[in-house]
Amino acid sequence: MSDQEDFEEPEIETLPLDAWHRRKGARMVPFAGYHMPIQFEGIVAEHNWTRNQAGLFDVSHMGQLMVTGDNAAEELEKLLPGAIASLKPGKVRYSLLVDEDGGILDDLMVTNATPWIEGDEEQGTEGHWGEPAYYLVVNGATKWDDIGHLREHLDDAVTLTHMDDQALVALQGPNAATALNRVMRNVIDDMVFMESVTHDFGEWPLRITRSGYTGEDGFEISVPAEFAEALADRLCAEIEVRPIGLGARDSLRLEAGLPLYGHDITTETDPVSADLGFALTRKRREEGGWMGHEKVMKVLADGPAQKRVGLAIEGRMPAREGALIYSGDKQVGRVTSGGFSPTLERPIAMGYVDAALTEEGTDLEVEVRNKRLPAKVAKLPFVPHRYHRGK
After folding, report:
1. At what angle do helices 246-255 and 43-52 cross, to 10 degrees?
2. What is the mean pLDDT of the chain?
3. Reduced to 3 states, what is the DSSP secondary structure of residue 260?
4. Residues 344-357: pLDDT tens digits?
5. Is 296 helix (H, G, I), strand (E, B) or coil?
6. How much is the pLDDT for 1?
């Protein structure tokens, strides 16, 4: 499907792995327009398995897009605050879609997927880079709006393709590389965090990216939907790998201090308040030229009114999204994500509090079931990231 065709938001749909999940005993729930597995054997068990072994997540609800054309990078830089034009082939960058008021429309991953065209000795041609191409992975709940936003603002000379014939799975955990290396030899040995390669695994053309959203080392694998079940079966045949549901994905990303769109970041939050300043490349901060630049730079210069922080909560009762945060008798913020941490065996949360109260160790209270629970501002992530960055 190309950007010359109409994109219409579908009703609740089934993922390519829907039947596979059900055969595995998954409990299915509606999420982001799809029926998705929330758990298989239990959220805590799946969470701990991923932390210690390797979990396979179905993230096919995410939007996979390809932007191609000679000016693709320059056009994307009109909408993203990250440096796209300087991104080398095979490299990946976390970035944001920002609206005119500086609010976050979505967070996403951008890969320079420009293909290398092999030369032909007989024809006397040398190898060269093909047409510039950028592979975007956007959130499932926002992908239709993202597609509309990109179509509206990208130049007509650039082509936007929605790769809706692709499934996406994430293999995450300290033994993810061990399992994947056993299945696909000599493919990922030299890869580090935020790198991407293409690989033909038998008849399955794959894009393998060393990334994920659990805080663990891992890989996201884009595969034609027709081969998704066979790939999932092959990966789960490895002793380290088990299927994992949405419930554990959420608790893992919370421990990793990673924001969830629609909860921790929305159009009501800007990149500075959301503590995502690292996504604003320094050169692009100075040069501007991207949507929302002036508004975001004003927040950066003046300082945000509130900022996203971690919260360590005393006791055993978790604080959920929407819980109010207090300093003395004054309400100073609100929880945006919260739950019980299986790794730390205590409640943790993220939320926004007044900028003057963001220092680590600041004493606060969180209201849960009409009770004020003592809490402290905590350093993020709660559980250290274990991305593979090389030697």
Report:
1. 60
2. 95
3. coil
4. 999 999 999 999 99
5. helix
6. 41
Residue 211 near residue 193, CB atoms below 8 Å: yes
Instruction: Please give the Cα distance from 235 to 335 (Å, whole number).
Output: 37
CB neighbour class for 139 (10 Å; exposed up to 12, middle 13-18, buried from 19): buried
> Which pairing describes strands 166-172 and 116-117: parallel, antiparallel, or unpaired?
unpaired
**110-162: per-residue pLDDT in tens?**
999 999 988 877 777 788 899 999 999 999 999 999 999 999 999 999 999 99
Please provide the size of the chain in residues. Answer: 391
pLDDT at 264 over 90: yes
| Prediction pTM value | 0.94
The CA distances from residue 288 to 10, 153, 233, 295, 297, in Å, are 36, 16, 47, 11, 9
Adjacency order of strands within the sheet including 104-112: 92-98, 104-112, 133-138, 63-68, 159-162
Residue position matching structure tokens 């299927």: 243
What tokens does 179 get? 């399992």
What one-character DSSP code corresponds to residue 247? H
Largest CA distance in the chain: 80
Q: Name the residue among 80, 101, 199 with its Cα closest to residue 146.
A: 80
User: Order of strands across the sheet with 13-14?
Assistant: 13-14, 34-39, 27-31
Q: Taking residues 229-233, what's their average pLDDT?
A: 98
CA distance 387 to 39: 25
Cβ–Cβ under 8 Å, residues 23 and 2: no
Kindly tell me the burial class for residue 123, based on how many C-beta atoms sit within 10 Å of its own C-beta (0-12, 13-18, 19 or more). exposed
Whether 186 has a pLDDT exceeding 90, the answer reads: no
CB 171 within 8 A of CB 191: no
Q: Are 315 and 347 in contact (CB under 8 A)?
A: yes
Query: C-alpha distances in angstroms, 386 versus 75, 257, 363?
Result: 33, 13, 29
Band (165; pLDDT cuts 50, 70, 90): very high
State the residue for tokens 């990922």: 188
**HEC assignment per residue over 85-151:** CCCCCCEEEEEEEECCCCCEEEEEEEEECCCEECCECCCCECCEECCCEEEEEECHHHHHHHHHHHH
